[in-house]
Amino acid sequence: MRAIETVSTVQIPENVDGMLDGRIVTIKGEKGEIIRDFSHAPIQIKLDGKTVTVQASWPRKKEAALVGTICSHIKNMIKGVTTGYTYKLKIVFSHFPITVKVVGDHLTITNFTGERNPRKAKIMGTTKVIIKGDDIIVQGINLEDVSQTAANIQNSTRIRNKDPRVFLDGIYVFEKHEGFQE
Question: At what angle are helices 61-82 and 143-156 packed, to 10 degrees?
């Protein structure tokens, strides 16, 4: 038996502005602005003052699950524009010294396990990448962009066709924070 409707609400804090244009949600805060399009989802989004209401009428299982997912996305947007997100990665090598540089919207990794060709990792959106010694700091206001950039960097140094217990070289995520930290 299906439920009549599934409803969930998100409160927007005082220092954050929220706007709604159809199913396009815009959140503005002190760190910046995030715009997200939810028009693919078969749900209704309403904005009453500082309350965002997400609901689905006569939902199937997936539509009911989408209500909670979209509320979580909106909460992540609010956290992003108020505090931001930081991921820290560690450069680990034992055989060949790895050199890492930011070139435009890519991170270039050279001399990884002695390879002649550099490996590249895409930096997503407006994410900022800082290199300090053996640490790489990935910061931004959009959680999806920050986490995808960190995943791209870690995945670009994945070792194939060698024993991973012996060749531990690579770049690995070791810390995740809310807020910009050095």
Answer: 90
* 8 Å CB contact between 28 and 81: yes
Instruction: Say if residue 78 is exposed, middle or buried (CB neighbours under 10 Å; 0-12, 13-18, 19+).
Output: buried
Q: Residue 154: which of 138, 130, 178 has the closest Cα?
A: 138
Strand pairing partners for 135? 90, 132
pLDDT in tens, 86-132: 999 999 998 789 999 999 999 999 999 888 999 999 999 999 999 99
The string over 84-93, giving b where at least 16 C-beta atoms fall within 10 Å of a residue's C-beta and e elsewhere, is: bbbbbbebeb
Kindly report the average pLDDT of the chain as a whole number.
92
- 90: helix, coil or strand? strand
pTM (two decimals)? 0.90
Instruction: Write down the pLDDT at residue 53.
Output: 95
Q: 3-class DSSP state for residue 115?
A: coil
Which amino acid is residue 49, in one-letter code?
A: G
Which domains can be identified in the chain, with CATH numbers?
5-82 (3.90.930.12), 85-178 (3.90.930.12)
